[in-house]
Amino acid sequence: MSENCDHNCSNCKKDCDSRSFLEPLNSKSSVKKVIGIVSGKGGVGKSFISAALAVASARHGLRTALMDADVTGPSIPQLFGIHTRAVGTEDELYPAVTETGIRMMSLNLLLPSETDPVVWRGPVISGMIKNFWKDVLWGDNDVMFIDMPPGTGDVPLTVYQSIPLDGIIIVTSPQDLVGMIVEKAVNMAGLMNIPVIGIVENMAYIKCPDCGKIIYPFGSSKIGKRAEKYGISKTVRIPIDPVFADLGDRGEIEKLEGDWLDDLFAFVN
Ligand code: ADP
Fold first, then answer.
1. Ligand 1 contact, 172 CB (< 6 A)
2. Distance 264 CA to ligand 1 centre (A)
């Protein structure tokens, strides 16, 4: 991929090997950096971190897009308090725009009702994600974060192959760092030649609201040693904080404070 790639293959004449399975981005859009947020399994806070990254990015003045590719558990619109349906024409779909200007698309904006379950087989789900990339009028963006489907199975593999990711950020819980779940995610990125930008250890500790004491409910952190083993230099540790869950439940994630994730932005700029 060229260093100045804007992922809009229709404007580019380069003979690029890595593009063999890649789908073209929407022809009227451009994205400078595409970053996948991945996890070895569900429930570790991947969607929360994807949304928090997009919020921090917009706050840094970057033109930011957020694709909810976690199609069977699409929780991104809820985090931003967006409950409208997406609109579009026969050829293209308009992203929802959040209060701070993040352009967002999720299957939940397309379902007749946001509580409808998605009981689709893998290829249909992957097809939907490719359509988000091709058919949504994303506009011009500095960065797009993609909340990837969890795990290392068929659906995430297709996304890796069809969307030109510049890097991934792995979200994990403290227990998963001990087992092989994170290693699988690291190895999958390696197989696809996609750099791992950093690891986020979510729910790493709790700070007592009364005395300020730090409690490690899952034992002392293993992230430093693991990151060293995988050759990943950026690590971030996020506490369990009921305020985070509350902001998400109220659809007010854009009010999230803190600069925990800022270290991961060097890659974008
Ligand atoms: P995933 O996308 O990995 O399945 P979610 O991002 O949906 O997980 O998170 C699961 C739940 O945990 C959500 O209700 C979210 O608000 C909450 N949550 C995530 N991270 C934290 C945290 N650090 N502190 C408190 N609640 C959190």
1. no
2. 19
Largest Cα–Cα distance in the chain? 61
Parse the chain into domains and list their residue ranges: 24-250
**Confidence (pTM):** 0.91
Angle at which helices 46-59 and 242-249 pack, to 10 degrees? 80
CATH class of 24-250: alpha beta
The strand ranges marked E within 39-174 are 64-68, 96-97, 103-106, 140-147, 167-172
The CA-atom distances, in angstroms, between 82 and each of 53, 79, 250 are: 18, 8, 11
Q: How many residues does the chain have?
A: 269
Query: Best mutation site among 48, 205, 249, 255 for ligand 1, i.e. most ligand atoms within 8 A of its Cβ?
Result: 48
Burial class (CB in 10 A: 0-12, 13-18, 19+), 17: exposed
What is the full per-residue pLDDT of the chain (269 aa) written as tens digits?
A: 556 666 665 566 565 554 467 889 999 999 999 999 999 888 899 999 999 999 999 999 999 999 999 887 889 999 999 999 899 988 889 999 999 999 999 999 988 777 777 767 777 778 888 999 999 999 999 999 999 988 877 888 888 888 999 999 999 988 877 667 888 889 889 988 899 999 999 999 999 989 999 999 888 888 888 889 889 989 999 999 999 999 999 999 999 998 889 888 777 76
